[in-house]
From TrEMBL:
Similarity section: Belongs to the RecF family.
Domain of life assignment: Bacteria
Annotated protein name in UniProt: DNA replication and repair protein RecF
Entry's localization field: Cytoplasm
SUPFAM superfamilies cross-referenced by the UniProt entry: P-loop containing nucleoside triphosphate hydrolases
PANTHER family: DNA REPLICATION AND REPAIR PROTEIN RECF
Domain RecF/RecN/SMC N-terminal: 3-350
Coiled-coil regions listed: none
């Protein structure tokens, strides 16, 4: 798939702009704080209805305006697709081919993206929530049922935590019902994630061995807070463990186990990646991003759109070469950078744009 055109109205520092793109490589040049990252954020937002940089929707709307709107014209294997998203204080409206979508799971996945930004380097050493977010975004794009199961789980989790915070006289029957529902959807979420991590590890290790010239093997493990022997025992074990730690949950006023507390572990040559060098961390994240592209293509039949936000300067020449060589020519790629000086091995089939104070012009 590739994004043919994007129109922005009142998004970040863009008041009104329409840009058409190359189906191959698109490079956006500009000084810092001119809107390069904002532009990639708009593409990301169009795909996933959320920002990767802020949880506050109002931050996305141009100063003193009440609403933003994004419109994208997408070319997929199945044909052209139009996407629209508008955001205001009343909420967001999303449409596919001018038909309003009531559920996010019916919208997300229509346009798939893989983002590589400098903050992704925190994925290894950062908080577990970053790694859970990584799974949720990737898996949600390729498996709509995962988003539905996760939404159900989060809704019941919110109910359970609210009850734990406010209960004065415990109703064990009511809590048991919540536990059953939580375990049901939580087990489904964990099973989705286990399969995804298994597939991700296989694809990422392949790329990592190429990048490391065969010297390093990458392993990725899903760490569940629910212990179980087989997936067939998962739901039963989940219910039992919720019951076993009920006193803990009542005292802490929250739910101590479940996919909302799970994590990923990365290992290089059987050593935790935490202890690796910066170069190893960069290679690991690079391998993950290339694996994401493989999995999305494998599941959906369409390549995702690749967004590289000011990361080329973070990579040495060896890793730059591996990245650019490892991207299939059919993958539409967007790169933001302050200069072309550090970019090597660029193809001749590309479009270059200049960004200055929220205005985009194409190099002739």
């Amino acid at each position: 798939m590739w994004l043919k055109e994007l129109s922005l109205t009142n998004f970040r520092n863009y008041t009104s702009q329409t840009v058409t793109f190359s189906p191959k490589l698109n490079i956006f040049l500009g000084k810092n704080a001119q809107g390069k990252t904002n532009f990639l954020e708009a593409i990301y937002f169009l795909a996933l209805t959320r920002s990767h940089r802020t949880r506050s929707d109002k931050d996305l709307i141009y100063f003193n305006q009440e609403q933003l709107k994004l419109t994208g014209h997408l070319q997929r294997v199945v044909g052209p697709v139009n996407l629209d998203i508008s955001l205001s204080s009343k909420g967001r409206l999303i449409s596919v081919n001018h038909l309003k979508q009531g559920r996010l799971s019916d919208y997300i996945g229509t346009m798939t993206v893989v983002l590589f930004a400098p903050e992704d380097l925190q994925l290894i050493k950062g908080a577990p929530s970053l790694r859970r977010k990584f799974i949720d975004i990737d898996l949600g794009q390729i498996k709509p049922i995962y988003l539905a199961d996760l939404s159900h789980y989060n809704h019941i989790l919110k109910q359970r935590n609210s009850y734990l915070k406010t209960v004065k006289k415990l109703d064990t029957d009511f809590l048991a019902v919540l536990d059953e529902q939580l375990a049901h959807y939580g087990s489904r979420v964990i099973q989705h994630r286990l399969q995804f991590v298994q597939d991700l590890e296989k694809a990422a290790n392949k790329h990592h061995q190429i990048i490391s010239d065969g010297l390093e093997k990458l392993a990725i493990t899903y760490q569940s807070t629910v212990t179980f022997d087989t997936v067939n025992d998962l739901e039963r074990s989940f219910i039992q463990q919720l019951a076993n730690q009920r006193q803990r949950d009542l005292f802490k006023k929250n739910t101590g186990i479940g996919p909302h507390r799970d994590d990923l572990n990365f290992a290089i040559n059987q050593m935790e990646a935490n202890f690796g060098s910066q170069g190893q961390h960069r290679s690991l994240i690079l391998s993950l991003k290339m694996a994401e592209i493989d999995l999305i293509k494998q599941v959906t039949g369409d390549y995702p759109i690749l967004l590289l936000d000011d990361v080329m300067s973070e990579l040495d020449n060896h890793r730059q070469t591996k990245l650019l060589a490892g991207i299939d020519p059919e993958v539409q790629t967007f790169i933001t950078t302050t200069s072309l000086d550090h970019l090597s091995h660029l193809p001749s089939d590309l479009d270059i744009f200049y960004i200055d104070k929220g205005k985009i012009s194409k190099k002739s």
